[in-house]
Amino acid sequence: MSQNAEKVLDHFKLFREPEYVEMFESKKKNFEDAVPAEELERVREWAKSWEYREKNFAREALTVNPAKACQPLGAVFAAVGFESTLPFVHGSQGCVAYYRSHFSRHFKEPTSCVSSSMTEDAAVFGGLQNMIDGLANSNAMYKPKMIAVSTTCMAEVIGDDLNAFIKTAKEKGSVPMDMDVPYAHTPAFVGSHVTGYDNSMKGVLTHFWDNAERTPNESINLINGFDGYVVGNIRELKRVLGLMGVDYTLIGDQSDVWDTPTDGEFRMYDGGTKIEDVKAAVNAKATLSMQEYCTEKTLAYCADKGQQTVALNHPVGIAGTDRLLMALSELTGKEIPAELLKERGRLVDAIADSQAHIHGKSFAIYGDPDLCYGLTEFLLELGAEPKHVLSTNGNKAWAEKMQALFNSSPFGKGCVAYAGKDLWHMRSLLATEPVDFLIGNTYGKYLERDIGTPLIRIGFPVFDRHHHHRSPIWGYQGGMNLLVKLLDKIFDEMDKDTNIPSKTDYSFDIIR
Amino acid sequence: MSSTAEDIKARNKALIAEVLEVYPEKAKKKRQKHLNAYEGGKPDCGVKSNIKSLPGVMTIRGCAYAGSKGVVWGPIKDMVHISHGPVGCGQYSWASRRNYFIGTTGIDSFGTMQFTSDFQEKDIVFGGDKKLEKIIDEIQVLFPLNKGISIQSECPIGLIGDDIEAVAKKKSKEYEGKTIVPVRCEGFRGVSQSLGHHIANDAIRDWVFDKSTGEIEGFVPTPYDVTIIGDYNIGGDAWSSRILLEEMGLRVIAQWSGDGTLAELEKTPKAKLNLIHCYRSMNYISRHMEEKYNIPWLEYNFFGPTKIEESLRAIAAHFDDTIKANAERVIAKYKALTDAVIAKYRPRLEGKKVMLFVGGLRPRHVIGAYEDLGMEVVGTGYEFAHNDDYQRTTHYVKDGTLIYDDVTGFEFEKFVEKVQPDLVGSGIKEKYVFQKMGVPFRQMHSWDYSGPYHGYDGFAIFARDMDMAINSPVWGLTKAPWKK
Q1: Which of A308, B148, B257, B437 has the least CB density, counted as fewest CB within 10 Å?
Q2: What is the mean pLDDT of chain B?
Q3: Is B216 touching A (CB cutoff 8 A)?
Q4: ipTM summary value
Q5: A31 in B contact zone (CB under 8 Å)
Q6: Which one is the CATH code of B225-333: 3.90.1720.10, 3.40.50.1010, 3.30.70.1230, 3.40.50.1980?
């Protein structure tokens, strides 16, 4: 017996104790019908080969370890960015349990969201009654100012009509006639979470803007898009906008609701874009999206309303931030203040100090389409060499845009963009065309374990590291954070690789 | 200051009445049947259960898919489990349940992988059967060492009229009788995870047991063959349980389903006794084996020394004197450990009040472990219990205990606000709500990334974890000194 009260062993060490190791061996030998060790080894090696890669890339139907989620997740993300807004997902209830868990595991924060809890009878008769009761219950219990409705695939397959349902529910008195209940159809079998974000955002805007008279003014709108770093990024964005003195409306602001204090009070709602501000935002001269692929329909709608539109791609690094600031300056006529110029200089300074350690290092990146773009552009600025850039929810247009980016730099030579591929494809890429570092979300740790490529966690979700969502990756400050993150991993690996006494003493430097 | 059971009961009843006030009339009528203060001596907890959740109330429940893929089938490590339908369900449940296993992931083990048919619009319109066939072919090429495949249906499958059973049969034939299991666990079926457990149990019956000839090559039975049923090996729970059974001379021929294999499922009908930890999720298959193969089953509880001791004796009672004597030896062997754990932690935890809201067995099973540490469970409830669970709960709870079935977010928050427990044990969705309120919390589904909690080894970890949650210095920092 190894357990003891003084120094309690949990799963990290307990199961390495001899009594457990022996038990595992006996279980495997006697009951598991385990694959013979040699056969296992043969297949393990084969699964890293070029032959396997070809078979793997020949897949037409199976998806293995995708890096994307479904539409309603994005819809919920967008919805919680509005003042006292309750996301309401019409369809099966298990979905909502999943979205709430998913966000809570990433942000380490509560996520409030309700379901209309449709079951078999609703599958047959439709979910109207669920909508009627659901809106009434959630309004009575959670007293939202707005309820943003989206759908699960169940409601979509049976063809529930949100517009008609919400209208009927209002007529039946579930919620006041004048209550704001924007909606969006968000079928899980179309697009991904970024599509759901787009649909939901557009749903909110059309709800407020469709019948609004537009009187253009000088303010601008910003839309952030689905972003795992939303807390840090929005705060940084606000700081930059404040420094520039821009008159703006941030449409969708999750930075408070996913960062509430522990002070004895649970705030189901906190912060968010005020409903009055969303209404007034129709008058803005322009809308700027921080993430093109999260806002394709939304921006098109803004353009229809007569606004100028600008789309960026998760602006990280020097050029990305330059474009953001110049776009803001151009749209508003405000000058980029000296303070931001100085911040830019500091980031350039930091890059100059450290570039020798990044130069020529090869990278694989995966994630949402915009994040991949922003990160790749930054790596190229650092003199790093991206080799594989993969986005499960990227499309052909994205791949072409990526290719143009690779072509713009000698460091992008030979890099390939993989649209619609998954992390099992990435495994083959890493095994056959190895790189020095992998950038991706938490699930990249399986690739790191299998192939040995060190993982730098940037993306969504990040479940197994805490609080990174609080630090921005946007702006020059965000670029600084990212630079440090990349360097930390590079230096850690350097040390790990040179710490064998009597063998690699010579490179184990105290100054790098 | 101690209140009598009657005081507590009166307070809890008043609290329930107060909480119900928020609901519209129709919802109030329905919800009041799920809330009660337990009347000591009654045969059940006096609440309705296994009824549809009300729309819009923020139920904590999941769905049938979660019950089948997430709970029953997903942990079977050497099979490939296809999340059949759109991408989300498999994505959100990908490796999040900590069903520990040992194996080479992607080669002979697949427990922490996400296989999905990633349905697109055309699959909804034209049906997904052809795609499913191709998926099975591709799995056979890329994962040749898989022992079997299960098809975990997501909502659309049942709505678009796909015939996954026909695909499974056809492909099984094509691959020389390979085990391919279609599971009709669409998320809209039933009212919670619970029906998914049942459907998954039935799928094992129909597509594993009934398919088998009963002949298992090389299997030599012994009189001491038992199984562990309904232990998902969260944080290694099944392992810290198995070790005790083996120490008392029993032979564990199968683990269901944490760290389980298809071979173990197939061997199970050879057992002399099925030991069932999570009654809710696997009583169906245990009852089936009792009827068909005459295998008795026993619900046991390996949380905390009091219940472990009772359970070890109850298990041993099914065997000969050697095993009975061994059980006593095992109990004696671990006595020093449990005494030391209790001596260390009980003084730090004595009298602390706990409120629970969890899934299958834990709302009752962990109560003994808290009591071993001098703590008191003052409120408990189940996500997806049936009435028999609430009957079994009466053996654990005290007169007046607040009972809440399928609690809503609103109710749970209000109950905790008023009852002011020293610890809440529930899930990830609830964790941060209560911590914001300044209430210590432990996730009691995932063990908050700790564990195991089962068995004697697990009890030490359980005690340490409850202590670190309650006695963390952070709870003294929630109020700024100038605001105190």
Answers
A1: A308
A2: 97
A3: no
A4: 0.98
A5: yes
A6: 3.40.50.1980
